[in-house]
Amino acid sequence: MNEELETRLRELLPAEGPGPQLRSRVLKSLQPVLASVEKGTPQEAKYPASYRLFRRAASYSGLVAALLLLVALGTNYWVYHSLDGRMTAIAGPPRVDQQVAEVAQTIALATDSRTGEEAYQWLLQRRSRRVSSTSLAHYDDVFQRLLLLRGI
Amino acid sequence: MKRLKAILKWMAIGTAVLVAIALLCNAYYVATTGAKLASRLEDLRKAGEPVQLSDLAREPVPAEENAAVVLGRATDGLKQVNREIESLLPKYPTGPCTLTKEEQEGLAKIFAANSQVLTQIKQATDCKVYDWQIDYSQSHSVVISDMIDHVGDQRAAVRILRARTALLVNRGQQEEALENVLQMLRLARLSNQESCLIQYLVGCAIRGIAMDAANQWLQMGSVSAEMHKALEDELKQHHVLEDFAHGLKTERAAVLSGIDELPGAKYWVSRGMVNEGKLRLLEMFERILAEGSLESGEKSGELGNDDSSFISVYVILIDKLLAPAVESSSVAMKRNLASLRALRILNAIQAQKLPAEEVPNLEGLGLEPSEIVDPFNGKTMIVKKLPEGWLVYSVGANRIDDGGNVATDVDVGCSPLPPPPPQSVKSPFAP
Fold first, then answer.
1. How far apart are CA A109 and CA B78, in angstroms?
2. Of B37, B403, B326, B347, nearest to B185 (Cα)?
3. Does B39 lie at the interface with A, CB-CB under 8 angstroms?
4. Distant-in-sequence, close-in-space partners of A106: CB < 8 Å, separation ≥ 6
5. DSSP for residue B361
6. pLDDT tens string for chain B (431 positions)?
7. B137 and A124 in contact by Cβ < 8 A?
8. Per-residue DSSP letter, B390
């Protein structure tokens, strides 16, 4: 069915007209438009240059945002790190609660270093809730007795 | 679907940009406040002042030379004697205390039965150092808690000495009474060696009780020239302003460490606010230190006038909670200083044995010119001769001369004792 239609179409002769002169005239008038179309994609050609610039930047926006975030994090790290260094130079290293450290050391002896470290952090938190020195000394006493019982 | 994806993508980008901007602002805030704080702390360090709690630790001293250790050994005895005195005298002796014969006998029995405690108090007040030996590597709250635990011994010792002074003055044993007064004054002086405002105020309270007893002792008369000299020699060793500055500087170091223990202060996001809080703290202490040295009750400035565009929660805590407490300690210092000056003036006047009606020229008493100045208004202390004795006073915190109304604490100083009550009147300590 289709082949028959195509055969018939081929048999048709062009209507009489200006012929080759018209072709050259049409091509000549279209030349500037075609030249501009060759430079960009047909889609972009529809929009003004500023919008095209925005679209191009938008394609990098994710990357820019990620970079900005990284720069911000890096700046924060640098500021905190340098400030900590300056403060340590002024006030010395961070405070270590001697009593808590001693109790934690006793616990670490009975258990392991990780438990000792956890105990140190836990006791520090308890200390900030006003556990007095005497009660902490009591903890240490209890732990020492336990160690003796276990023969450590 | 494609549109939704685009919206989500732009929302994610927008959020990331906003977070990045917030982070950059935070970095700027932390950097600027941190630089200011570090600069101020460096200045304090260069001046040899403490900037953190652990700086308050002192060199160890032998136990026998440490009044705190000696008093600590007597804790149980001190409590016991206090309980016995409280059961005898429902109200503790203050001001012009007149004891009944029964009360005098009761007190004498208590002191005779507990002479060991009195000896221990004497040993403590003869020491040169007062050091609680607190472990300053602990947190701020624990250090303060430990300090409060230690205050009890001083309080008990001074109450015993005050009751004994009242007994001795009532019995006319002036020389022994003076020894008690001097012990109380020495204890106050020693107490001010310890750190922080708590201990400074305890020292002020002890000195206040001692000066009250000294006034009673002086107003009773029969004081020899040697006794006047002994009292003046002790009183001139009390440097209230320097002790106050020591209390403020050590308190500043303690609170600087204490701020780091406040809720949320350890999170990195609150670092800028913590820095700003510490800056406000330094500003407040500088202002109160300056006011303390002004000695005229004038304010050198108000908090809250800085160029900070952002007020952190830590700044609010300092302005609303800490500043009023520290400022009230400044008033306590001035009251103590005014009482001390009034007592020195009274002692000097009585030592000169002036004619009955003659009000002396204070500049001719042999005291330093600064020692006759009223710390509340910067003018000369007021002296009046009343029929009952000398009235020496400062105008007090209201800076108005209320006619020497020392009894109600409107004015501050030394007032004469009221005439003794008739024998039929009950003792003020009687239940």
1. 41
2. B347
3. no
4. A140, A143, A144, A147
5. P
6. 778 888 898 899 999 999 999 999 999 999 999 999 999 999 999 999 999 988 998 888 898 899 999 999 999 999 999 999 988 887 776 666 778 888 899 999 999 999 999 999 999 999 999 998 888 888 888 888 888 888 888 889 999 999 999 999 888 888 899 999 999 999 999 999 998 988 899 999 999 999 999 998 888 777 788 999 999 999 999 999 999 999 999 999 999 988 888 888 888 888 999 999 999 999 999 988 887 665 554 554 444 444 454 567 788 888 888 888 888 888 889 999 999 999 999 999 888 877 666 777 888 788 888 889 999 988 999 998 888 888 999 999 888 998 888 888 889 999 887 766 555 444 444 44
7. no
8. E
Place of tokens 């005895």: B77
Residue B42 structure tokens: 């460096």
B263: closest chain A residue by CA: A128
Residue B221 phi, psi dihedral angles, 5° rounding? 80, -160
d(CA B113, CA B85): 12
DSSP label of B400: -
Q: Residues 129..188 of B with a Cβ closer than 8 Å to A: which?
A: 135, 137-139, 141-142, 145-146, 149
Mutate to test the interface with B, among A69, A90, A130, A133 (most CBs of B within 10 A): A90
Name the residue among B4, B56, B109, B46 with its Cα closest to residue B251: B56
- The three-class DSSP label of residue A16 is coil
- Distance between CA B416 and CA B147 in Å, rounded? 36
Decide if B77 contacts B150 (C-beta within 8 A). no
Residue found by looking up tokens 């450290």 in the block = A101
* Lookup result for tokens 């915190």: B397
CB count within 10 Å of CB B311 equals: 15
Instruction: Report which secondary-structure segment, H or E, holds B161.
Output: helix B140-170
> Are residues A80 and B135, on separate chains, in Cβ contact within 8 Å?
no
B396: region left, alpha or beta (phi > 0 left; psi from -120 to 50 alpha): left
Flag whether the pTM goes above 0.90: no
B390: nearest Cα among B338, B354, B428, B427: B354
3-state secondary structure of A125: helix
Q: What is the distance in angstroms between the Cα of B69 and the nearest Cα belonging to chain A? A: 16
3 state DSSP class of B129: strand
CB-CB under 8 Å, B45 with A86: no
Interchain contact B269–A (C-beta under 8 A) = no
CB A100 within 8 A of CB A139: no
Q: How far apart are the first and last CA of chain B?
A: 90
DSSP state of B362: G
pLDDT, tens digit, 9 for 90 and up, residues B228-261 = 999 999 999 999 999 999 999 999 999 998 888 8
Residues of B in contact with A79 (CB under 8 A): 27, 30-31, 34
Amino acid, res. A129: R
Contact assignment for B41 to A69 by CB distance below 8 Å:
no
Closest C-alpha to B382, from B353, B349, B418, B408: B349
Give Cα separations from B417 to B96, B210, B224, B394 (angstroms).
6, 16, 19, 18
